[in-house]
From TrEMBL:
Residues 41-281 form the AB hydrolase-1 domain. InterPro entries: AB_hydrolase_1, AB_hydrolase_fold. Pfam families: Abhydrolase_1. Residues 1-20 are annotated as: Disordered. This is Pimeloyl-ACP methyl ester carboxylesterase. One of its GO terms (molecular function) is catalytic activity.
Length: 301
């Protein structure tokens, strides 16, 4: 395991390359951003609970010169529709694969997932192993029971959905401040976008359904975690696990459990960093990811 304390990224950045398009999956309109050479090796980026593809904009900027970079809203999150039927982790994973199909990307992808997106990435591997070349798990859910109290409360039946319909500017600011160690990243632009996302009809219901599946007021449920990690072990892929040293959403202590579950994985801790190192340490994250992917490609995976 390595730790870096490099300078943080700037909280402001230019618009990322590529364009956001909308594809239709089982009647739902899902946003997807693509950038880079379509013939280059594909990278798929998945965000966390209640978030959106914008959480990966900084990596579109940095990786598109070498890779075909794809980010998508998980169904029902961001500015995208929910899929028909109950919202489940499996549904989110299958929806992500369906987005790849919709844009004509059928090659194995380098899959990167942050938080909930990390758990969804592992599910994609277990449900469609032929679609995954490598895993990069960024403060991923699935390795421990500890989670911020705010997410525990949202998993309480009926209570979570009701609270999610009452998000105001102060609540949105508190959420952003919990995600980033450096308050400079808690910009008016991010808060305004969080309010726009929270105001969408599908968001509260999908968020509450997924939070309830993930855990209870006591923390993340052990049953789905144990089942998922056992399934991941049956489909080994080159894996990189990274965390922010000061993550208060999912504590960095979960990294030890991750390395026990995936003993061949590389690991890295970003010093003075919160829950989203792909944003707070954008340059260092991109450098780390490039090295990992290059090594995996050279080894023939």
């Amino acid at each position: 395991m390595t730790t870096t304390g490099s300078r943080p990224a700037s909280p402001t950045h230019p618009s990322p390359p590529g364009e956001i398009a909308t594809v239709t999956v089982r009647g739902a309109r899902i946003r997807v951003r693509t950038s880079g050479d379509p013939a280059a090796p594909p990278v798929l980026l998945l965000h966390g609970i209640g978030r959106s593809l914008e959480d990966w904009d900084t990596q579109h900027e940095r990786l598109s010169d070498t890779y075909r970079v794809i980010s998508t809203d998980l169904a029902g999150f961001g500015l995208s529709d929910r899929l028909p039927g109950p919202a489940t982790l499996e549904q989110l994973a299958d929806g992500a694969v369906a987005v790849l199909d919709a844009i004509g990307e059928h090659r194995p992808v380098h899959l990167m997932g942050n938080s909930l997106g990390g758990a969804v990435s592992m599910l994609v591997l277990t449900r469609a192993p032929e679609r995954v070349a490598t895993l990069t798990l960024v403060a991923a859910a699935g390795f421990g029971s500890e989670v911020t109290v705010a997410l525990r409360v949202l998993g309480i039946p009926f209570v979570g959905a009701r609270l999610l319909t009452r998000i105001d500017r102060a609540a949105a600011r508190r959420t952003e401040r919990a995600i980033f160690l450096d308050d400079a990243f808690v910009t008016d632009e991010r808060i305004a976008f969080a309010l726009e996302v929270a105001g969408r009809a599908d968001q509260a219901g999908v968020f509450a359904d997924i939070a309830k599946e993930l855990g209870t007021v006591r923390g993340v449920r052990p049953q789905w975690r144990a089942r998922l990690l056992a399934d991941v072990a049956r489909h080994p892929r080159p894996t990189l696990v990274v965390w922010g040293e000061r993550d208060i959403i999912l504590p960095p202590e979960h990294l030890r459990a991750a390395l026990k579950a995936i003993p061949h994985a590389r690991s890295h801790v970003f010093a003075r960093c919160g829950h989203m190192p792909q944003i707070e340490r954008a340059d260092a994250f991109a450098d780390l990811a490039r090295t990992f992917l290059r090594d995996a490609e050279q080894s023939g995976t």
